[in-house]
Amino acid sequence: MAVSFNQIPSSIRVPLCYVEFDNSGALTSTPVMEWRLLLVGQAAADCEGPLLTPTLITSADQAAKLWGQGSMLASMFRYAKRQGGILETWGLAVPDPEAAVAAGGDVTLSGSCSASGVISLYIGGERVRALAQAGEALTVTAARLAATINENGELPVTASTAEDQLGVIKLTCRWKGATGNDIDLQINYGTDDALPQGLRVACGSMSGGAGDPDMAAIVAALGDTWWKAMSCPYLRKAERDILEEWLDAQFGPLRQQECQVFGAFRGTLAEASAYGNAGNSELVSVLAIGAMPSSPWDAAAAYAMRAATSLADDPARPLQTLELTGLKTPRREDRWNMEERNILLYDGMATFMVASDDTVQIEREVTMYQKNSWGMADPSYLDVQTPATLGYWRYAVRSRILQKYSRHKLADDGTRYGPGQAIVTPSVIRAELIALLGEMEEKGLLENLEAFKSGLIVERNKDDRNRLDVLAPPDLVNQFRVFAMQTRFIL
Predict the structure, then answer these.
(1) Which candidate, 248, 250, 251, 279, places its Cα nearest to that of 263?
(2) Where does the Tail sheath protein subtilisin-like domain start and stop, copy by copy (predicted)?
(3) How far apart are CA 467 and CA 459, in angstroms?
(4) CATH 3.40.50 fits 36-94+214-386, yes or no
């Protein structure tokens, strides 16, 4: 029998005509790769939604209903959805850590309001405006400001007045843990903000928050679903080590379900530099946000959504200049200059820039990978496009091989088998891989086809004759990052 049928048996004698269908050769182009983004964050203590269970979310309102309007995870979805796109997005709600402590901070009013006006307080980058009337007692103004804060259910804090401290408003993070310490408090951030005459407002720092969720439990909850991208606010060294162990296994040749994690870090230049140098994963990219008023988890969610949406369309295209909608820039005096940002890019930290319209844009999306196993500088995984493009290459190869050769026999080149049989030889696979690279070259993902042909090795394994071994040297398309020109002018 020459033709290898899948469903029509060779032993059938009953007449007459039998036709089967075979879709193994139906695809004539590289496949579309589906991206799935997972946002990990804490839920409200009294939420009704599932905990440690991945849940498909199609709107920020849905996330708020499930896990609490002012919860960290609901806020992350608000910022993620503001980036636009139709990327499939899931949420993993995390409960408060056991024995954790909620962060707290003070806002202190002093002086005497001699002219009515508006107090503009910024909590995690969100503006709260409260009236201050001329001649009223500080306790009245403080109570009004606290009530205004509590009326906004999307804020990450609740407010109360201190009876034994005149004009002091006590803020408490809605969830427990160390992340609450990163909630920024500012007064008069906007250019049109001004305190009422005679009134003074001092913002303390959020502090006292302690405890982090169990990263092992978070990893266990990820299951077998292929998460192409993830936003996670729990990336301190201990938690990151656990997550990176899972990421390495996912990126490996046995699971083949690579995932890239996007985070954000608040801190000084020295703190951000030290944080970046403590990591070395090609699958983690952390945006250094410095003194940005917006919260790190919101910045991480925006960064993850914007990056994943772009990489899903084209894994090799740079993200520079993409706007992170909704994030607020640091004050001018707190912004890092070019030299400082360049230092961070050498320390494994992604950077942002401020556009002329005061919007936040991605400047360069580097990974935390910096050194090889010998501790030597290694830029092979510098940008997030490298693992993203490699992931697509592997996906395309697997799709082509599994689609066309899932039930084939293996023979040596030159074997005289009849046409139409399900038999593959090394030269057939070699030709298939060359054709596939040509398709990806046309898509602008790989280059140098002739070099690929020269370096490609396809051979049967000497010890296992059922196995085909391949050494493939694809040349990944790079990104246009720097334009350098010397203008040697003539007078």
Answers:
(1) 279
(2) 208-368
(3) 9
(4) yes
What is the rounded CA–CA span in Å between residue 124 and residue 381? 33
Rounded CA separation 349/124 (Å): 22
Domain ranges of the chain: 36-94+214-386, 102-203, 408-490
Q: How far apart are CA 255 and CA 474, in angstroms?
A: 21
Pairing mode, strands 126-132 and 117-123: antiparallel
> Interior CA angle at 69 toward 66 and 72, to 5°?
90
145 residue type, one letter? L
Residue 321: both structure tokens together: 């200049």
CA angle 317, 321, 323 (to 5 degrees): 110
Amino acid in position 412? D
> What is the C-alpha to C-alpha distance for residues 73 and 94, in angstroms, rounded to an integer?
9
pTM above 0.90, yes or no: yes
Q: What CATH number labels 102-203? A: 3.30.70
Phi, psi of 119 (to 5 degrees): -90, 130
Q: Provide the token pair at 445.
A: 């993902």
Give the residue ranges of DSSP H helices in 8-71. 60-67
| Residues 257/279, Cβ–Cβ less than 8 Å | no
Question: Helix or strand or coil: residue 242?
Answer: helix
pLDDT in tens, 229-285: 999 999 999 999 999 999 999 999 999 999 999 999 999 999 999 999 999 999 999
Under 8 Å between Cβ of 440 and 452: no
Query: What phi, psi does 241 have (nearest 5°)?
Result: -60, -40
Q: Averaged over 82-88, what is the pLDDT?
A: 94
290 phi-psi bin (left φ>0, alpha ψ -120 to 50, beta other)? left
Q: Give the DSSP per-residue string, 168-211.
A: EEEEEESS-SGGGGG--EEES-STT--PPTTEEEEE---B--B-
**Residue (of 186, 170, 138, 157) closest to 44 by Cα position:** 157
